[in-house]
Design a protein that fits this description.
The protein is α/β, with parallel strands linked by helices. The chain is 48% helix and 10% strand. Helix 14 (354-360) links the parallel strand 8 (344-348) and strand 9 (373-378).
């Protein structure tokens, strides 16, 4: 079968786009060919997509014990021996190129493996090299004109791709003095336009200045090694349980290629954003790109707010500054074009309208590639129903023990209250009702005060809640229509703890349509109905 080109080849090899690729150099180079692998390796290599190579007769053989060796090697997913493994064809690049990124990486403090021994043609990859690949976080593959002509280079590549698929290993591809024109163009006499597109893409990627090019390599490696983590909260009490539940529902450890959407819903101040950010930090390394768009509701209300969010989404994942999009429709098209094959993680925080979702992740169809995950936080359960998410996760009020610990950490900087303050601390926790925001605000406000001050402060809170709490809860209230607001106020003032049938009867007689209004209040976590067991 004819080779489908460098980009198609490596996309086929990984089944997804590489974690990054750059190109250095140019000039005409013959496209190397290799013979088919032995029967033992044929199935495995074909599974990686190497069937697209142009096989030519030669004496090249591959090591039939390669996968026997790799089966005895245990991956070290958290404690890496090296941060970067350099894979290259020595005689092509060692003295005139590879030394430069190697030196730059070492100067930056990145632990880098670079094999100093050049294997004679025909020899096989050593166990030392296999161990180095398995013990590295990133592989930097320098693809030169003769890279594919030697079996140990191909063996290294197979090992790298095996680690990518099983250990979240990252590989970055560099084209060194290789152009799309290196492909036998006579095989493409009927599709020269495609060849021209490849050439244009690589020319655009080229920098032309080696020093700046090396800087870009180091920048990309540093980013892959140190992805940005989101600030969660100072005291993440009780959050680990929810994170593990979310990870299970997201099916991260499975082979599914399905795009999964999960919604987190609950009342304002309950901790939806905190949970979404914690999950993001736990799982973002397992994707080709990730983006967490906070305060979607607030930002989208600003002038060109949705466009700003679209630009941020593209930059977070592509790491390229997108020129002004201009309008939302253009942004939708651009997101589809650039991200529809990428396996990404996207978090949309505080969504309250479907048009926000349609502009960022879905407009008839989802914008991202197979295996992607989208997490949406909202106060409105019905919005998730209309969207058709795979899972809806309701975040409930904290239990008493977790509430007391969270309050104590803010009030006393310890997991439990001081003995003299224990009784009044329990009263404060009961007042907060398991709402994390209220527990944090109360605890911080009472810290360092005397018991007398505690009593007066709690009394003030009962009569007039803190401004921050009012603001958060007021957002939910203002989003209601007039009739539903009236029903909520009536319930708060007169019907807390009252039989639901009696409440329905009274509200119906007042012409307030309680069946609709109470359903809305329940979906937005503003009212809870306790049914008898």
């Amino acid at each position: 079968m004819a080779c489908n080109g460098l980009l198609d080849l490596f996309r086929a090899v990984t089944r997804v786009p590489s974690d990054g690729w750059v190109r250095y150099g140019g000039g005409p180079r013959p496209w190397a060919t290799v013979s088919p692998p032995t029967h033992l390796r044929l199935g495995s290599l074909w599974a990686f997509g190497l069937g697209h190579w142009a096989w030519a007769p030669s004496s090249l053989q591959v090591d039939p014990t390669l996968f026997q060796m790799q089966s005895s090697i245990k991956p070290c997913s958290n404690h890496w021996v090296y941060e970067v493994f350099l894979s290259f064809r020595g005689t092509d690049t060692r003295k005139n190129f590879t030394d430069h990124p190697y030196s730059a990486l070492v100067r930056t403090g990145i632990r880098t493996f670079c094999d100093d021994n050049e294997l004679p043609r025909g020899e096989n990859i050593s166990k030392e090299l296999i161990n180095a690949i398995h013990g590295s976080r990133i592989s930097l593959v320098i693809f030169s004109k003769d890279y594919a002509s030697f079996n140990w280079c191909l063996d290294e590549l197979v090992q790298i791709l095996h680690c990518k698929s099983t250990m979240n290993h990252i590989f970055i591809l560099i084209f060194y003095h290789v152009n799309p024109s290196d492909i036998h163009e006579e095989r493409y006499h009927e599709d020269m336009e495609r060849v021209q597109r490849w050439r244009a893409a690589l020319i655009e990627a080229a920098n032309g200045y080696e020093a700046r090019f090396i800087e870009k390599i180091v920048e990309q490696v540093l980013y892959k090694l140190n992805p940005i983590r989101l600030n969660v909260v100072e005291h993440p009490v009780g959050i680990d349980f929810h994170v593990e539940e979310m990870k299970t529902l997201l099916q991260l450890g499975t082979s599914t290629t399905e795009l999964l959407i999960m919604g987190i819903y609950g009342m304002g101040g309950i901790g939806k954003t905190t949970l979404a950010k914690a999950v993001y930090n736990h799982i973002c390394d397992g994707f080709e790109g990730s983006s967490c768009l906070l305060n979607v509701r607030e930002v989208s209300e600003q002038s060109n707010g949705l466009i700003q969010l679209q630009e941020q989404l593209l930059f977070d994942i592509l790491k390229v500054k997108i020129l002004l999009i201009g309008n939302v429709d253009k942004g939708i098209s651009l997101i589809k074009q650039r991200l529809h094959r990428k396996r990404v993680l996207v978090v949309l925080d505080d969504v309250d309208r479907l048009d926000q979702i349609y502009a960022l992740v879905k407009n008839g169809e989802w914008f991202f590639g197979p295996g992607s995950r989208v997490i949406i936080t909202t106060r409105d359960e019905h919005l998730l129903v209309k969207l058709g998410v795979n899972y809806s996760y309701k975040l409930e009020n904290m239990n008493h023990l977790d509430s007391l610990e969270l309050f104590s950490r803010h009030a006393f900087n310890m997991p439990h209250p001081e003995e003299d303050f224990r009784e009044i601390s329990i009263a404060a926790v009961d007042y907060a009702g398991g709402l994390p925001l209220a527990l944090e605000v109360l605890g911080s406000d009472l810290r360092g005060r005397s018991i007398i001050k505690w009593k007066t402060t709690l009394e003030k809170f009962r009569k007039s809640p803190d401004v921050q709490i009012q603001k958060i809860l007021g957002i939910s209230f203002k989003s209601l229509d007039h009739t539903t607001r009236e029903v909520l106020l009536d319930i708060a003032c007169f019907f807390t703890g009252v039989n639901i049938d009696y409440v329905f009867k009274i509200l119906e007689e007042c012409g307030l349509f309680p069946d609709i209004a109470i359903n809305i209040l329940v979906q937005r976590s503003l009212v809870k109905i306790d049914y008898p067991n």
